[in-house]
Amino acid sequence: MNSQQHQRALVYKSLWYAGPWVLALGVVLVGANLRGSITSVGPLIGLIKDSLHISNTLSGLVTTLPLLAFALLSPFVAHLARRFGSPRVIFTALLLLTAGIVVRSTLGVTALFAGTAMLGLAIAVCNVLLPSLIKEEFPRNSGLMTGVYSVSMNVVAATASGLSIPLALNAGMGWRGALGIWAIMGVIGILLWIPQLLKARKTVDKAAISARTVNVYKSSLAWKVTLFMGLQSALFYVPAAWFPEMMSGQGMDSETAGWMLSVLQFAQMPFTFIVPIWAARLKDQRILVLIMAVLYFIGLGGFLLGATQWSVIWVICIGIAGGFAFPLVMMFFNLRTRTPQQAAELSGMAQSFGYLLAATGPTLFGYLHDATQGWTIPLLLLLCLSVVLMFTGLGAAKKRYVGGEVDDQTAI
Q1: CA 330, CA 229: separation in Å to the nearest integer?
Q2: Which residues contact 345 (CB under 8 A, 6 or more apart)?
Q3: C-beta of residue 351 within 8 angstroms of C-beta of residue 128
Q4: CA atoms of 36 and 204, how far apart (whole Å)
Q5: Selected residue with higher pLDDT from 42 and 271
Q6: How far apart (Å, rounded) are the C-alpha atoms in residues 81 and 94?
Q7: What is the chain's alpha carbon radius of gyration, rounded to the nearest angstrom?
Q8: CB atoms inside a 10 Å sphere around CB 110
Q9: pTM attached to this predicted model
Q10: pLDDT digits (tens, 9 = 90+) for 373-395
Q11: DSSP track, 89-157
Q12: Residue 34 per-residue DSSP state
C-alpha cells in the first residue's frame, strides 16, 4: 500500500513538474508579463511629465528605453540559454522584470529610467527564448502555442493601458501606483515558472546537442525578418506611447483616450490567436502580409485625414493590423529555421537590430510633434513605415530557410 502510494505520488509529481500542460501554462504567464509594464505608460505620459517636469522627447524615452534594452541584450540571449538552460534564464528574467517594475515606481527620474531599463532587459530575454522554446517543446503545435501566448500578452496589455488612468486618478494611486501594481503579475509568473527549473539540466543538454547552427547574419532572409520585426515593433510602440496623447490633443478626454488604446489592444486579440495557426497551415504567408498592410493604410490614413469622429474605426484597423504583424514575425522565427537553436539565433538577431530600429520611433515621433506642433508629419512617418513593412514582409513570407534561401522542395 505504501509502495503504491509512493508510486502514485511520483506520477503526480512527474505530471506537475514535467507535464506539457504545466509548461504551456508557464508560457502563457510569461507572455502575460511582456507588455503590460510598457502599455501602462502611454496613458500616464501626461501625469509623468507634469510630476517629474520632463519634456515630450524625454518622456518618449520611457517607452524607448525598453526597446534599447531589447537591442542590447537580444544577441546574447541564445548563448545564455545554451549555457544555463532556457528555464533558468527565463526564471531569472522574471525576477529582474518584477524588480524593475518596483524600482520604476519609486523616487524620481533616476529610478524611473533605471527600473525601465531593468524590465526592458528582462523582457528581451523572454522575447528571444519563447519562440525557440515553443519550437522545441511543441513542434506540432507551434502555431497554436504562439497564438495562445500572443493572446495572453495582448489581454494584459489592453487591460494595463485601459486601467492606467482609472487607477491613477479614480483609485487615487497616482502614476507610481498605477505602474507598480503590475509587479503582482510578475510574482504570479515567477511562482508558475518554478516547476520548469527542475528541467533545466535537460534543457541545457538539448541545447548543446542542437548547438550546430548557421550564421544568420549572412542570410538575406534573416535580414528581411529582422527589418519586419523592427518596423512592426515601431508601429506598435509609437501608438502605445503617443496615441492617447494625440487623441487628447484632438479633443478627447484623457480617460477615453486611454481606453481607445485598450480598444486597439482588444482588436488585436482574436487575430493574434488565429493568424499563427493560419500561418502554420499556409505554404507561404504573403496573403497575410497584404491583409496587414491594407489595414495599416486604412487606420493611419484615417487619422492623417483628420476624421476624428471615426477614431474608433481607425484604432480598430491599426489593432487588427498589429494582430497580424506580431504573430507573423513570431512564426517567422520558427517557419524560417530548421532547429530550435537556429530559431533562437534568428530571434536574437531580429529582436536586437529590429528593436534598435523601433527604439527611434517613440522618441522621433515626440520630437516631430514638438518641432511641428502638430500630428501630420509624425503620422506621415508611420504611413511610410507601413509601406516598407509590406514589402519587407512579402520577402520574409516566402517559404525558405535561413542559411539556405531555397524553396522547401529543394532544401536538404
Answers
A1: 9
A2: 78, 213, 214, 216, 337
A3: yes
A4: 30
A5: 271
A6: 15
A7: 21
A8: 9
A9: 0.77
A10: 888 899 999 999 999 999 999 99
A11: HHHHHHHHHHHHHHHHTSSSHHHHHHHHHHHHHHHHHHHHHHHHHHHHH-TTSHHHHHHHHHHHHHHHH
A12: S
Cα(337)–Cα(173) distance, rounded to whole angstroms?
46
Kindly state the DSSP code that residue 337 receives in the 8-state scheme: -
List helix spans (H) across 210-310: 220-249, 254-281, 286-304
Q: 90, 192 in Cβ contact below 8 A?
A: no
Let me know the angle formed at the C-alpha of 384 by 378 and 385, rounded to the nearest 5 degrees. 90
358-376: per-residue pLDDT in tens? 778 887 888 888 888 888 8
- Using DSSP, state whether 156 is helix, strand or coil: helix
| Count of CA atoms in the C-beta half-sphere (13 A) of 257 | 23
**CB 385: neighbour CB atoms within 10 A?**
21
Give me 76's grid cell. 546574447
Q: Which amino acid is at 255?
A: E
Question: In the structure grid, which three cell numbers stand for residue 324, read together?
Answer: 497580424
Task: Give the span between the Cα atoms of 186 and 101, in whole angstroms.
Answer: 9
The three three-digit cell numbers of residue 178, written as one number = 498605477
Structure confidence at residue 136 (pLDDT): 84
For 241-273, how does the pLDDT look when each residue is reduced to its tens digit (9 = 90+)? Answer: 788 888 877 777 777 777 787 788 788 889 999
Task: Find where cell 482588444 sits.
Answer: 266
What pLDDT, in 10s, does the model give residues 155-197? Answer: 888 788 778 889 998 888 999 999 999 999 999 999 888 888 8
User: What single letter denotes the amino acid at residue 312?
Assistant: V
Contact 167, 177 (CB under 8 A): yes
Mean pLDDT (whole number) for 316-328? 94
